[in-house]
Amino acid sequence: MPFQFNVGDHSSPVANYSSFNSSQYSKLKWARNKLFRMVKNNPSCNAHFRTLPNGRSLSSMIGDSSIWVNYGSMIAPLHGEIHVPTGEIAIGDRAFNMGRWMVLATIIHEFAHHNGAPITGGNTLAEEAVYHCGLGTAQEYYDGVDDPRTPYDPNVGG
Ligand SMILES: [Zn+2]
After folding, report:
1. Single pTM value for the model
2. Domains of the chain
3. CA 151 from centre of chain
4. What spacing in Å lies between the alpha carbon of 26 and ligand 1's midpoint?
């Protein structure tokens, strides 16, 4: 069973992590379908995930129904967040307001943290997962200058 979105069927142990509404859920379903196809068609995505501290492929993680993604109403200005002790993930309004591609990028970024990419400021491993899964340009990656037309941001640390 794939990883799960909280649509009222999960009581998160993390305070302020709650369920998505139906308009958020439609963006999430699009992102999940896209994610499954990207992982299958883009080997560099799993290759990057296997280099992260916990060593899991993204294929393995997206097929893991114990991983829950919740709505984080209080996480602004972040797009997403992970509660490390429980592994619970939250996506916030900022990501939804920027559209489904940013929702997809945020899921990938937080899954990279779930796989051990450091949260500490300045470490770019989590955001690099967004690039390696095909959501940024090589110019952004190598020059370190953000192109606002892609959801990848080479200046995001932690
Ligand atoms: Zn992060």
Report:
1. 0.97
2. 4-143 (3.40.390)
3. 11
4. 24
